[in-house]
Specification:
By secondary structure, the chain is mainly beta. It is 10% helix and 38% strand.
Length: 145
């Protein structure tokens, strides 16, 4: 009985009924029409192109960052435009993330980054690049609407 009352007020909307799944987080409650709790996310396309004058293709191009829990995500080569790319989805929005592009496992410059940040902690120090001002990470401002 209490479950039924709770579902009338939108508290039990995620419980399966008659084998049918409840509403997806981020959609409206079936009773009140209000949004369910869902944090905003962001998608980002990462791209890397061989620097001018280089002809030897790398064995691997990857992105690693706070939004991947520091797990490497491979970029795939598009042979038509000779560019490597990957779309990373579900990046937590409305916050700044740190990341690095890796070519053959080594940090490399990302001309499309939003800025530079001081590395914080072991993971970031491990992937930081050296600049004239010391080690730095790339920043991604994951903004959502």
């Amino acid at each position: 009985m209490f479950q039924r009352i709770g579902s009338m007020f939108g508290n039990g909307g995620n419980q399966p009924k008659n084998g049918q799944p409840g509403p997806t987080p981020g959609t409206s409650s079936p009773v009140m029409g209000r949004p369910m709790d869902r944090k905003p996310t962001y998608s980002k396309v990462f791209r890397w192109t061989l620097p001018d004058g280089e002809t030897e293709e790398p064995r691997s191009v990857e992105v690693v960052g706070s939004f991947t829990d520091w797990q490497r995500v491979p970029l795939l080569k598009d042979p038509k435009v000779k560019t490597w790319h990957a779309t990373v989805q579900n990046i937590p929005g409305n916050k700044t993330h740190h990341y690095m592009l890796l070519v053959n496992g080594q940090p490399t410059v990302d001309k499309g980054c939003d800025g530079y940040a001081l590395p914080q902690g072991y993971q970031e120090e491990r992937y930081a690049i050296q600049t004239a001002r010391g080690p730095r990470m790339f920043m991604l401002f994951a903004q959502t609407k």
